[in-house]
């Protein structure tokens, strides 16, 4: 006989109550799981990353954000001298290595500040990380941060000190350069007054006064020019400028002193060469180079000015070379000739009215136009200054696409090539017919004693100053 067990009867109300209880239990479990997950997430976010030196939880609220936007290098140390937080600039300066402060003097300052709570500041010279070059000048300031931490702020003063040194040097040089002609004018004016009864003496002193006044005017004008090229953006008023026009203006500017010394000024037509820039600044730069070449060349010599296009990775460039047959420049002087007020021969500079600012202006003009100026020189042989500027593509009539700028250039024979010497027969024979025809149309600005020169004036090897 089969045994059966009867279950108790459950009405609808009992079923609903059971379901409600089960739902409540499930909700409690789900909520508990959610709370645990949320708290676990918070703990995970609070954990330091592998790149952190220490937990950020010890920093006062908001400090981390402030340190991240500071321009100064920032380092936070705890009571054990361990780096809690360091900015990327601090690593770049080499202040932090292996989680520790690497500068002993700064570490000692931090310990003293932690002990007495006093703010300390000092200026230091730090060696560069590479171990080469000028030491870094820094200002270090240490202050307490809360009860256990110390904040170190370090500012790099190297560039500021360099600029200040340049400013002091510039002011001192300007004062000295102005003092010389002004003092001379004062003495000469007294001499004129004392020689009122001697017309010849008055005329002689007046002539010298005119020379000093001209020198003073030139100095003031070049200081103004230098200030302009340093502060203005020449590319705001940039335009295609014909190299022929720049050369012609420079030659006209120096024609009188060149004729007085019977110096031949030889140029080569370059109708298809254009540079991009400020016409006035480019004319002043090239004029300074030509003027220097004339002033430092002996009588009865030659000065050559020539332009050519060269291919460069970033775009075609134009080189304008000015070559003289002067006394040359020593290697030591070549390192400094582009400094303001520097003169290779101060006595000669005073005699020619030089201010020592001309080459500095050339350097700044070239740099502001995206170019450079270089110099090659050999003592007793002369110098070649080369102004290298970006070409104004598409300006004027372009040369033939297949034209080789170096075609017909004489091969290097191992000897020094005189950049202003007449072409040899071999060089002339090696020149393509198209170049020979162009040579017939060359333009020369010369004295009656001029000699013909090859179409291209070859600068000697460039040596960066």
TrEMBL record:
Catalysed reaction, written as an equation: ATP + protein L-histidine = ADP + protein N-phospho-L-histidine
GO molecular function: ATP binding; phosphoprotein phosphatase activity; phosphorelay sensor kinase activity
Transmembrane segments: 17-38
Subcellular location: Cell membrane
Positions with biased composition (Low complexity): 420-433
EC number: 2.7.13.3
Keyword annotations from UniProtKB, A to Z: ATP-binding, Cell membrane, Kinase, Membrane, Nucleotide-binding, Phosphoprotein, Transferase, Transmembrane, Transmembrane helix, Two-component regulatory system
Main location: membrane
Top-level enzyme category: transferase
SUPFAM superfamilies: ATPase domain of HSP90 chaperone/DNA topoisomerase II/histidine kinase (SSF55874), Homodimeric domain of signal transducing histidine kinase (SSF47384)
Region named Disordered: 394-465
Claim: Transmembrane is one of the keywords in the record: yes
Topology relative to the membrane: Multi-pass membrane protein
Biased composition, class Basic and acidic residues, residue ranges: 401-419
GO cellular component, one term: plasma membrane
CDD domains found in the cross-reference section: HATPase, HisKA
Domain annotation Histidine kinase: ranges: 173-393
Sequence ranges of Basic residues compositional bias: 444-458
UniProt cross-references to InterPro entries, sorted A to Z: BphY/WalK/GraS-like, HATPase_C_sf, HATPase_dom, His_kinase_dom, HisK_dim/P_dom, HisK_dim/P_sf, Sig_transdc_His_kin-like_C
GO terms (BP aspect): cellular response to phosphate starvation
Protein name per the record: Sensor-like histidine kinase SenX3
Protein species of origin: Streptantibioticus cattleyicolor (strain ATCC 35852 / DSM 46488 / JCM 4925 / NBRC 14057 / NRRL 8057)
């Amino acid at each position: 006989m089969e045994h059966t067990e009867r279950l108790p009867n459950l009405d609808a109300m009992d079923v609903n109550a059971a379901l409600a209880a089960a739902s409540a239990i499930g909700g409690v479990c789900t909520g508990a799981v959610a709370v645990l997950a949320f708290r676990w997430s918070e703990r995970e976010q609070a954990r330091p990353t592998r790149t952190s030196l220490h937990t950020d939880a010890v920093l006062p609220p908001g400090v981390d954000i402030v340190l991240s936007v500071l321009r100064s290098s920032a380092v936070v140390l705890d009571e054990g001298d361990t780096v809690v937080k360091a900015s990327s600039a601090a690593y770049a300066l080499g202040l932090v290595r292996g989680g520790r402060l690497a500068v002993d003097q700064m570490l000692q300052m931090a310990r003293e500040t932690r002990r007495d709570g006093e703010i300390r500041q000092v200026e230091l010279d730090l060696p560069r990380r590479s171990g080469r070059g000028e030491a870094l000048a820094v200002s270090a300031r240490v202050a307490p941060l809360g009860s256990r931490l110390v904040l170190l702020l370090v500012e790099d003063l190297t560039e500021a000190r360099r600029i200040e040194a340049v400013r002091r040097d510039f002011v001192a040089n300007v004062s000295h350069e102005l003092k010389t002609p002004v003092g001379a004018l004062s003495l000469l004016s007294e001499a004129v007054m004392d020689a009122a009864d001697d017309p010849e003496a008055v005329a002689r002193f007046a002539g010298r006064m005119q020379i000093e006044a001209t020198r003073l005017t030139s100095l003031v004008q070049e200081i103004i020019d230098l200030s302009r090229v340093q502060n203005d953006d020449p590319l705001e008023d940039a335009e295609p400028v014909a190299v022929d026009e720049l050369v012609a203006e420079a030659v006209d500017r120096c024609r009188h002193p060149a004729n007085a010394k019977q110096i031949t000024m030889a140029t080569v037509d370059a109708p298809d060469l254009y540079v991009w820039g400020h016409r006035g600044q480019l004319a002043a730069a090239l004029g300074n180079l030509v003027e220097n070449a004339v002033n430092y060349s002996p009588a009865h010599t030659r000065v050559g000015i020539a332009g050519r296009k060269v291919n460069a990775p970033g775009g075609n460039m134009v080189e304008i070379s000015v070559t003289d047959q002067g006394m040359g420049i020593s290697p030591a002087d070549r390192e400094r000739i582009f400094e303001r007020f520097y003169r290779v021969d101060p006595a000669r500079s005073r005699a020619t009215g030089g201010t020592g600012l001309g080459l500095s202006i050339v350097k700044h003009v070239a740099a502001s136009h995206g170019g450079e100026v270089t110099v090659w020189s050999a003592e007793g042989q002369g110098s070649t200054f080369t102004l290298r500027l970006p070409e104004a593509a598409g300006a004027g009539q372009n040369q033939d696409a297949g034209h080789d700028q170096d075609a017909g250039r004489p091969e290097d024979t191992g000897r020094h090539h005189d950049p202003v010497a007449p072409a040899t027969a071999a060089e002339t024979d090696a020149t393509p017919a198209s170049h020979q025809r162009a040579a017939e149309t060359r333009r020369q600005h010369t004295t009656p004693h001029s000699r013909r020169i090859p179409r291209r004036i070859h600068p000697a090897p460039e040596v960066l100053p």
